């Protein structure tokens, strides 16, 4: 049952999310810049990018919390502007920040959600029990949410997002602010709910490993635009080789950079990054040409390398707290 | 059906939170009790108005105060909801903004009425003898006042981003409404400038109406007090609904 490669054997259905030229401007600032997406039923789709790239803004538009400035979007065949109620009924959403009421118990939070999202009274109890089981919170369901750990609260909100059997589930940075162990747990739960509930999932994240672990396809977003979109596998292949990372003081670049199997050379303060085809057979030669390296690291490319490849800069984990812009949009979608 | 369920959900949440946060009930009743027992008792030992002991005279005024303060704070409380993001969960629900407003408002009226009811019970200790009719009419007055003031709180709260402005609202809105309502003094022999303010203050009519029903002392006919208060509540509820429907 615990199959970790969710992508492989699932056939995807019809298109459930479609956008064309979707754009959001705040004054002169273009937060989301003509995004075209087509996501199929059953897919786990990732929006990957640094904070302020426009991920949350995109999600907020699809969830009808923000109106697009330009362009069109359809969720479950309903227009996100003119049929927002129908869209809301087809989606579940787990917000970046905790959004459960911590004075109430877990069960009460779920009960309120069931009422507000029109879960029929004859299936309410049963459905609440089902989602609680799905996230292993049965024995804590009657405790106040303020006694929960961060991970438990996240799990409760995952359960809540699924309660009304949405066709599409939006997860906005589902593991932000959680410790590494808890993050892996949350990933397991997300995989479990994809398997058991057959729901289409859209995840925004700035964690490379998260996108790699969970997503069938990933759109890399930078500065409001999609710079690449494919399966994590193919995105990595597109980098063109393995990554050789050398810690080296004064590398001799000239003899190296024209070698036929070197795809790309990049130099930072203390490191030399080489993208190399068939790296294992050529490593020896590279090392002899480049000079004395303090350390060598050889790895297959990660999405981080992909991101670097397409945008010319890395996603910095230090941004995790949220850039100014992300905060600004959040304040907007919260308030007025 | 969903709208009604949603309305119930919003009310249910407020009610649960209210029951669980007992410190809020205690603290919101403590100040009015201080006014009645200390201020009313102290001044009442040498002052009586219109043949009524001062402590008893201000009782309807303090009842109004209880409703006024608990209602306005309830409304402003949505600023916290917005902060903890619980409100986002509500806003993304397939419910109309009107339902969300109504659910909040009814929740607030419930809270205020429970607190007002507890204060009303305290009146027995002061020697006020209630009849069933008195209690019913007083509760109707409290309900109208609560729905109007909760709406004001929600309107202001829907525009506020942080609770920093709370003190400003208390100083410049709630206290003036209270002091200019005749809660603590009779309003028929006032200097003309003060008289103008009390006449314009809708809260005056809540105090006057309740005092009329409970003690038989009133400046205006009780039915007129009722009419003014009903109008006040209606206007505030309409403005509140509009404010919520504009909220993103």
Descriptive report:
The complex is a heterodimer of chains A (336) and B (248). Chain A has 12 helices and 14 strands. Chain A is α/β, with parallel strands linked by helices and 336 residues long. Chain A has 2 domains: 15-235, Rossmann fold (3-Layer(aba) Sandwich), CATH 3.40.50.300; 240-300, Alpha-Beta Plaits (2-Layer Sandwich), CATH 3.30.70. In chain A, helix 3 packs across helix 4 (121-134), helix 3 (106-116) runs parallel beside helix 5 and helix 5 packs parallel to helix 6 (180-197). Chain A is elongated. In chain A, 44% of the residues are buried. Chain B is mostly helical and 248 residues long. Chain B has one domain (2-246). Chain B contains 12 helices and 2 strands. Chain B has a two-stranded antiparallel sheet. In chain B, helix 1 packs parallel to helix 7 and helix 7 crosses helix 8. At the A-B interface, helix 2, helix 3 and helix 12 of A face helix 1 and helix 6 of B.
Could you write a compact summary of the structure shown?
The complex is a heterodimer of chains A (336) and B (248). Chain A is an alpha/beta fold and 336 residues long.
Number of strands of chain A: 14
Helix content of chain A: 25-40%
CATH architectural group of the largest domain in chain A: 3-Layer(aba) Sandwich
Low-confidence stretches of chain A: 1-9, 317-336
Strand count, sense and barrel status of the largest sheet of chain A are: 6 strands, mixed
Please tell me the overall pLDDT of chain B. Answer: 92
Helix content of chain B: over 70%
Secondary-structure-based class of chain B equals: mainly alpha
CATH topology of the largest domain in chain A: Rossmann fold
Portion in strands of chain A? 25-35%
Secondary structure tally, helices of chain A: 12
Give the overall silhouette of chain A: elongated
Stretches of chain B where pLDDT falls below 50 for ≥5 residues?
A: none
List the chains of the largest interface with their residue counts: A-B, 33 and 32 residues
